[in-house]
Description:
By secondary structure, this protein is mostly beta strands. The protein has 1 helix and 19 strands. The longest helix has 18 residues, at 2-19.
Amino acid sequence: MRSEACVLIVCSLILFTGCKPAATTPDAKPASVETTDKGETIQYVETESGRWRVHDMDRPAPDVVTPGAEPCLAPSDAIVLFDGTDLSQWQPTKWVIRNGYMESVRGAGYIRTKDSFGSCQLHVEFATPENVQGNSQGRGNSGVFLQDEYEIQVLDSYDNATYPDGQCAALYGRAVPLVNVCRKPGQWQSYDIIFHRPVFEGDKVVKKATFTVLQNGVLVQDHVVLQGGTQWNGPHAVSDYKPHEDKRPIALQDHGNPVRYRNIWIRELKD
């Protein structure tokens, strides 16, 4: 019953957020740019809390919230990408399967789905290492990439300070999560992601991507309009949009930490 209730809650939120107009949040305003004497690009964003560099350690972090929801099971119309038994839906990789989960292997690189997707609802469960090592970005680092391009950060952000636009559930370098709802290291967590892809005409983006994200059943990204790419482009800069196919793979990042994933499913949505 708890899993059924969880599905109903998430679906209700999807219906609600899907009906509201896209809104650019204070964290999503286009960045101003300057170049240092050494040629380093520094981007700035204007927010309710002030003007901040991309990946600024001094930027105010989200409040901490304790989650209470259990993970959700796949609905009947979902495509199951990983059920804990094999990697048949994924391109060949050195990632390993243990006890119903897959685990990243240092140096193995990203793991990508064989099929490609556009706008979608994606459910992913993950766990950062129980044995805590490192800090900031060096602790339980991975990422969920929509269209092999747009990253929702995976990180051990439980009592771990880092730049807020790079903590767990951030749209990397673009949007800070509304709250920090991370569980303790080693505990299973969930993302429910509603993604509408960007639309390109030639070299120009004519419709920007939008993200709604729930972490552990709590809303952390509220129909955010993604203002550009999320690829790391220096200590204080991220990538711009670049044209790509309408459908591309889902990717999970190997960042050198043994992060685990399980119960991954997807539902394709209309643009």
